[in-house]
Amino acid sequence: MAKGATEERKKVDAVERALSILDVFSENDVRLSLTEIARRTGLYPSTTLRLAGSLEYWGYLRRDADGHFRLGPTVLRLGSLYRDSFDLGEVIRPALKRLSEASGETAAFYVREGEDRVCLYRHHSKHPLRHHIEEGVRLPLDRGAGGHVLMAYTGGDTEIHRQVRAEGYRASFGERDPETVAVSVPVFGVGGAFLGALTLVGTRTRITEESVPGLIELLRGEAAQLQEELDGRRTARA
């Protein structure tokens, strides 16, 4: 391995070890000793101390007088930003309702969470035979129209992802469920920031190759309206 690549790998390893430290905290373990952090992460105490010092410097950790660590204010700030970025229900839900009523299919809004996609909001079809999915469910990123769209706009660089970015949509026939078809487009927010995937899902008996273009048009129209509304809300708050 070349020297530059080795140095880059070392930097990535350091980041991953630091993140593993943050990951050991939970609602039941809000304060942990250095020894306990080292034990849970499998890191040497000296490495744990060094990384914890960097995390403390940047506000991700705070060290109490007794030497125990707890999460710092930076985590709270980022958590608040994360929550606010997804506090879109009052905008997304009406769009999903319109999409579902116009298409007759289930409409959903997905976001990426690590190596999964999460259904943040959904509006079910009124058909007795329909694709049924609940809010909060986690699905794989590597299958389904919504997963491909999320990957395409969060670093994915396969031929599929490049095609999604070029065409601005993805349709999938039976990728995750052999009887299900999905069509998805990206949703952008203020300043063109990528937010998630707007998706229509239905059965193969109703969604065909011929009907996909009409669904894409519906989805793109709602995605554009969402971006316009989010930009307007940002301007009104400014």
TrEMBL record:
Gene Ontology terms for molecular function: DNA binding; DNA-binding transcription factor activity
Organism: Kocuria coralli
Function description: May be an activator protein for the gylABX operon.
InterPro entries attached to this UniProt entry: GAF-like_dom_sf, HTH_MetabolicPath_Reg, Tscrpt_reg_IclR_C, Tscrpt_reg_IclR_N, WH-like_DNA-bd_sf, WH_DNA-bd_sf
Keywords, in A-Z order: DNA-binding, Glycerol metabolism, Transcription, Transcription regulation
Protein name in the entry: Glycerol operon regulatory protein
Domain IclR-ED residue range list: 74-232
GO biological process, one term: negative regulation of DNA-templated transcription
Record carries keyword RNA-binding: no
Boundaries of every HTH iclR-type domain copy: 12-73
